[in-house]
Amino acid sequence: MRIILFFITICLAACAVSKDEMKNSSYEPRPSRNEAVEKAKNYFTKVLKNPDSINLKCSHDVKRGWVRDVYDVPQFGYLILCNINSKNKFGVYTGNIVYAVLFSGANIYTVNLTKDYNHMITPWDYYGFSE
Q: Which one has a higher pLDDT value, 49 or 4?
């Protein structure tokens, strides 16, 4: 049991992003909320099965932040959280799925925060705000 707890502690510590990393990262100019929502909508229109059915609701603020997948290096930029509800390939709405959407220059990174990560790692280990 102690070995498992030790392993989980090490994994969580490895997921942390230091204040120095956030502070020393370069950031492009901040997009307005409308620009960020439009970019997010364009992105999801390209990747979802039924783009005509997208219901997109995003947070009010665009803030400096970071995202990463489980073992990836964090990507820094401007972050907005979005709820997306769209139809799947069967024509049924999926329900609200929360994504962290990060804009870093011309790149867009997304992390699905609704996934079940087996309760070992919380979604907070995959994104964060720098401000």
A: 49
d(CA 109, CA 38): 15
Q: Count up the domains in the chain and report the number.
A: 1
Q: Is a pLDDT exceeding 80 seen at residue 96?
A: yes
Question: What confidence tens digit (pLDDT) does each residue in 62-88 have?
Answer: 888 888 766 677 888 888 889 999 998
- Which residue range is the domain that position 13 belongs to? 2-129
**Which DSSP string corresponds to 103-120?**
EETTEEEEEESSS--TTT
Instruction: Give the position of tokens 């994504």.
Output: 99
> Using CA atoms, how far apart are residues 93 and 68, in angstroms rounded to an integer?
27
Closest CA to 20 of 72, 76, 62, 81: 76
19 contacts: CB under 8 Å, gap ≥ 6: none
